[in-house]
Amino acid sequence: MALGIMWHNKEDVITFPVIRVARPDQQMTKRGMLSVIMKIFDLLGYLSPFLVKAKVCYKYCGVKELIGIHLPQNMLKDWQDWIAEIPSISEMRLPRCLLPVGTDCIKDVDLHGYGDASEMEYGSMVYLRITIVLGETVTDLEMSKTRIAPVKRVTLPRLEFMAALITARLLSFVKISLEMKFELTDAQWWIYCPTTDNPAGVLTRGCRLKDLVNAWPTAKLELTIDRSPEFQAEVRKSARELHVPTKTEAVPDAQKYSSLTKLFNVTAYVFRFITNCKVTPEERKTTPLDNEEFSEELESLKQERKLPKSSRLWPLNPYIDDNGVLRVSGRVRHSDLPFHTMYPFLLSNQHPSPSDAVLSMPEILDYEWSLYRETSDKGMRDL
Question: Which residues are paired to 300 by β-bridges?
Fold first, then answer.
C-alpha cells in the first residue's frame, strides 16, 4: 500500500483501502464534512467524479458560514447518500498496467487531455492512447484533477479558460515525466470537443460510485478527429490616408457681375437666406433694428397702448404692419401714392446701419456713373 492505494500483485489491479466513517449521523457539520473528505486520498484522480460532489457541499457550507451548524435539509440528503457510498470504494478494481500488449507490438503512444467547466467546478483529465501494430487503438485514463469554482462569482468562459490551463499543466507534467515534447500555446495541440462527446463532463456533473467504473470511457474515444467549429477568418480593416488638393474660390466672385449694385444685392440675398435658415418664421417678423432702438415703443404698440408724449415716435403716429415691421402713418396715407411711399419704414438715425447705407449711396452712384461712362466711351470708340 502506498499513497492511499493498494496493489494486488496476483490480479495486477489497483484498489483502495476500506474507509470507515465513525458515527455518520454526527458528521453533518462543516467540520465533520472536512474530516470525512480528508480520509480519502486520491492522488491520480480516479475518484474525482465522486469526490467533487462532496467538495461542492463543503463549499456551500463555507459560503453560508455553517461551521458548527447542522446542514440544511436541501443538502442533508445529498450528503447522507454520499457517505453511504464510501464503503464501496474498496470494491473498485483498476488495471495497473496501461499497456494492453508488449512494447514490441505498440506502434504509437499519445497523450490526450480533456477539460470542462460548470458554474460550480471545473476539471481536466489525461488519457493515454495506444495504437497497436495491427491497427487497433486502446485508450485508458492516466489521471484527472478537479477544482471548485471560486466563491466570488466567475463567468463561465473564464472557468473554461481555467479548465484549459490545468489541462495544459497536467499534460505538461505527464509528458515531461515521459520525456515527450509538448508546447502549451501551439494551436496544433488544441482541438475543440463538443460537450456531448467530452469525457471530462463527468468531472463537472459528478456521478455515483457504482457508476464510476463505467463513467470512464476507454476504447470508444475518437481522439484523432478535429471537430472544431468553422469560423470565418478575421479580416482587419485597413485605412489609407489620402490628400486631395482643392481650389478655393472667392465667394462671391466679383467678375461674374456687371455692376456693383448687383453684386451687393446677390450678397445680401445670400446672407439673408443664411440668417433666415437659423431662425423660425415667427422670429423673423420683428426686425433687429427695431428691437434694439424702439423696444419700449414696440412693446406698447403690441399691447395696443398709446405712446407717451415723451417718446420720439409719438409725432410720427407709428404702427406695426402684418409682418411685424414698424412703419410711419401720416397724412400722406390719404394720397394715391404706393404703399411703401405712404407708409415708409421707421429706422433710427442713431443706429449705424441706416447711416452707413445713406452715406454709401453717393459713392455707389459715382462708381456706377463711372462704369457707365467707360462703357459708353468704349462703345463710341468701337463705332
Answer: none
- Higher-pLDDT residue of 293, 130: 130
pLDDT-based confidence at residue 204 (cuts at 50, 70, 90): confident
Residue type, 33: M
For residue range 334-380, what is the model confidence (pLDDT) as tens digits? Answer: 777 787 777 777 776 665 555 555 555 565 555 555 655 555 554 44
Integer Cα distance of 175 and 110 in angstroms:
10
* Backbone angles phi and psi of 261, in degrees to 5: -65, -40
Contacts of 282 (CB under 8 A, 6+ apart): none
- Is the pLDDT at 224 greater than 60? The verdict is no
- Do strands 121-132 and 137-148 pair parallel, antiparallel, or not at all (unpaired)? antiparallel
DSSP 273: H
Measured between alpha carbons, how far is residue 159 from residues 114, 119, 123, 281 in Å?
14, 8, 10, 64
- Element holding 52 (H helix, E strand): helix 48-64
152: pLDDT strictly greater than 80: yes
Beta bridge partners of 124: 115, 145
What φ, ψ does residue 141 adopt, rounded to 5°? -70, 130
Is residue 203 within 8 A of residue 123, CB to CB? The reply is yes
Q: Is 200 helix (H, G, I), strand (E, B) or coil?
A: coil
* In contact, 320 and 298? CB cutoff 8 Å: yes
Burial (CB count within 10 angstroms: exposed 0-12, middle 13-18, buried 19+), residue 199: buried
22-36, 132-146, 276-290, 298-312: least confidently modelled range: 276-290
Q: How many CB atoms lie within 10 A of CB 377?
A: 10
> What letter would DSSP give residue 90?
G
Full-model pTM:
0.51
- What DSSP string runs through 308-369? PTTSTTGGG-EEE-TTS-EEE--GGGGSSS-HHHHS-B---TTSHHHHHHHHHHHHHHHHHH
- Determine the number of helices (DSSP H) and then strands (DSSP E) in the chain: 11, 8
Question: For residues 353 and 345, is the Cβ–Cβ distance under 8 A?
Answer: no
Q: Can you list the positions of beta strands (E) in 99-205?
A: 106-117, 121-132, 137-148
Per-residue pLDDT tens over the stretch 57-90: 888 776 666 555 566 777 778 888 888 888 888 8
